[in-house]
Amino acid sequence: MANEEDDPIIQEIDVFLARSLLEKLYLFQYPIRPASMTYDDVTHLSAKIKPKQQKVELEMAIDTLNPNYCRSKGEQIALNVDGTCTDETSTYSSKLMDKQTFCSSQAASNVSRYAAAVYKKGELHLTPLHGILQLRPSFTYLDKADAKHREREAANEGGDSSQDEAEDDVKQITVRFSRPETEQARQRRVQSYEFLQKRQAEEHWVHLHYYGLKDSRSEHERQYLFSQGHGLAENTELIKSPSEYLMMLMPPSVEEENEKPMAPSNVLSMAQLRTLPLADQIKILMKNVKVMPFANLLGLLGSGTDPTAVLRCVQQVALLVQGNWVVKSDVLYPKDTSSPHSGVPAEVLCRGRDFVMWKFTQDRWVVRKEVAAVTKLCPEDVKDFLEHMSVARINKGWEFMLPYDEDFVKKHPDIVQRQQMLWMGIQAKLEKVYNLLKEHLTPKKQEAQSAHPLLVSGEQRVNMAKAKVKQNYGQLEKEFQKQKAEMKSKDSSARTDVPNIRIKEEPVSVEEPMDTSAHEGLNNGLVNGLHPAQGSMEPVNGHLPGGCIDRVAQELKAFVSSTFKKQFVLTLSELKRLFNLHLASLPPGHTLFSGISDKMLQDMVLDTGCKQILVPFPPQTAASPDELKVYALWEAGDTYDQHRQVLLEIFSKNYRVRRNVIQTQLSQECGEDLNKQEVDRVLKVSFCSLW
């Protein structure tokens, strides 16, 4: 009472309820703009609305004459979106980004408690709001630019497309027969996200006309914000008791509670998810994520969640695969459902997916054709199974999505043992259904003992290489003696070519094993870099016979010249990689198989007119010594020779240079003003293999 006496009533204001704009008044919330700019200064080019969805799109003009507007950026965006040609379908007809689109989204689901108020002559007039919409910039023009870019790339590639796995020429054709749709299936289809998106897209836009703040039509419409009559008959809703009036102003949120779904959907927020029971939370998370480590699951459930309760609940909806939890098949494919691709019932889909999960308990890799051959399901269904829990690797197959969770296996051996018993039961059912052979089972049981990948240290690799050398030494010695006998049995004319050459036989030292590098597979049967069928072209004791040196030098020079004419700048590491690929494409017995050292390769690079660029790389770089050696073709005879030489001089002083510095240096040295596109072209042509 004392506080009320200290806060006296100064003025009483009559409140009126205006109904003229009932269910027609919307509140638009625009993005924040500078205080010096008002929306009265902005030109609205067009506006349209979808009344049922309460979705609005406004197109506003951008002041391109403003000093803060970057004209070059605007031109670049227009060029990316529309290309060089302009027609009626162009987004920016002026070849400049001179407009921006704003798209709306609902700010609140329940706006019954909000109203627009106008105060005039001691009276407060309220008009209930029909919707509150937040307008945000729409970037659909970026999608259009990406689509243009993909079309250009597809045209350049000539229609070639890469596939994860090579498919046979003969493809299986699946015939599907439609079945009568049950009421339960129809309700699920109507509530699906795809159906709602389709319904929203079918609603047509209603184009609107925008009137400015000072327009006479706007002045006329603003009069409807005032109550047209001050009689009590029109404002009977405001004649209430204080408690009823307060209840009208702040109604309880019963409607919002009723609107909350009992079963969550794909758009359920984390805040709403945590209001559900723990079992439902875990089921929804596993159904959406499909594969998850236990630590990640605990993190999503929030702090304070009991891990024991989580373990108890997760076993009801998921199975353990390589230490990670994978959602059960019957959770993804409930009873009385069917495949969207082939119409196969859920029971068959669950068996097929269980087979894929069981395969991943045996090995990290699965081949799709093997799964399709056993399950007899269509390729689309098999691909869905694999995409749930694995990633495709080119020319290898499908690898399990997550690494082996060794921490969980060590902490919970009882859970692991229980899951192994479950998998044994599932395996027994799969053997009966698919008539699995022993060759599908026995090897995998052995691999299952080490489900996680084996790590081999560097010392172990060296010991393995030494053991391999010792094992193969006897066979190599026999082959060498055989070749030696064949050489002695040749006629005297052939022996006169090499009269004074002696073959020095040296035992293989255990301390210095043979080089078992990563390029071993490129030599196609080479022994120490030499092909056994080379005959007289074979080097003896590291020296080539007479006349062969010139041929090797010519072949090596031809390779180096052609390589640097295609890629003007190369590191020694990249050049060696290209040379190994070139050797792999040559027939057996070619002169280049005589053995090319790094020094010979580098000397030939310098002899062909190339120069070594001493790029000042930082001392803490992790690059190998071969990657730090950079060679460049100094003169190629094209129009970019001068530009390329300037760039090489720049990078010989600093390994990292800003683009504007490069542009300035090129303009000064070459005597021509180059724009950004021309600088990018020079960089792309000169350093396409490095940068």
Automatic annotation (TrEMBL):
Gene Ontology biological process terms from the UniProt entry: tRNA transcription by RNA polymerase III
Entry GO terms, CC: RNA polymerase III complex
Domain of life, source organism: Eukaryota
Record Pfam families: RPC5, RPC5_C
Classification via InterPro entries: RNA_pol_III_Rpc5, RPC5_C
Region described as Disordered: 146-169
Chain ranges of the DNA-directed RNA polymerase III subunit RPC5 C-terminal domain: 444-689
Residue spans of biased composition, Basic and acidic residues class: 146-155
Protein name stated in the entry: RPC5 polymerase
Source species of the chain: Prunella himalayana
